[in-house]
Amino acid sequence: QVQVAESGGGLVQAGGSLRLSCTASGSSFSVDHTDWYRQPPGKQREWVAGMPGSGVRSVTGRFTVSRDKGENAVHLEIDSLKPEDTGVYYCDARVLRNIRGILIPFDIWGQGTQVTVSS
After folding, report:
1. Contacts within 8 Å (CB) and 24+ apart, 31-34
2. Is the dihedral of CA 39, 41, 44, 49 positive or negative?
3. Which of 37, 108, 113, 115 could bridge across to 6 with cysteines, CB 3.0–4.6 Å?
4. CB burial class (10 A; 0-12, 13-18, 19+) of residue 60?
């Protein structure tokens, strides 16, 4: 069983920055790709940024996805925060599990972490 958990959300002022983390745990798996999504209040979930499992850093506008060397966590850093960045941020890890010698992909979602940006 593989689980994914997000952390690092909170209340921040506009103009600041925030770093969220996504940690995958379990056995016999590797991360093929990690995507970050967010769901603003009253709106649909939307893609924010992503990075392949072999990646180290990926920048999409104000959003930077990165992984520190040796860590089993993928981070999302948001710069120049705006009130419209408010929402629940989710991590979606595409993992490969070795089941009887066969690598099978699974999409594992975390429970989300709330980010609130005050003006």
Report:
1. 31/74, 31/93, 31/94, 31/95, 31/96, 32/94, 32/95, 32/96, 32/105, 33/93, 33/94, 34/65, 34/74, 34/91, 34/92, 34/93, 34/94
2. negative
3. 113
4. middle
